[in-house]
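stuck on this chain:
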Amino acid sequence: MTTAAPVTPYNSNYSGTMPFSNQGVKMTLAASTALSWTVPGAATQQYRATFRCSSTAEVWVRLNGTAALPTSNTATDVVGQEFIPLHEPKYVNGGDVLSFISATTPQVGVALLLVQNNPN
């Protein structure tokens, strides 16, 4: 059985603040090489994922697949891949795999805040 930090309740007196993450990862990407990371915990645990990297870094992230760089002058349909959403948290579940790729070597951080833990 996986033990995780308790769900963090939100109260309106926090006035736009968020607590420190329950889980997270930091990495430096190798140029043009996908790097995958598995979200810790059980599939019943849902996290708010916040991504951080330099505002000038072009980093792609893909959910449950391998991230790939776009090909020049080609439009390719891709499900679940987008530029790292710096100001838009995403929800992920324990066991999901996040794959990252960049043409350069940026440092990337992901902070997870447990928002739901369904033991069933």
Observations:
- The chain has a mean pLDDT of 86.
- The chain has one domain: 21-69+80-117.
- DSSP finds no helices and eight strands in the chain.
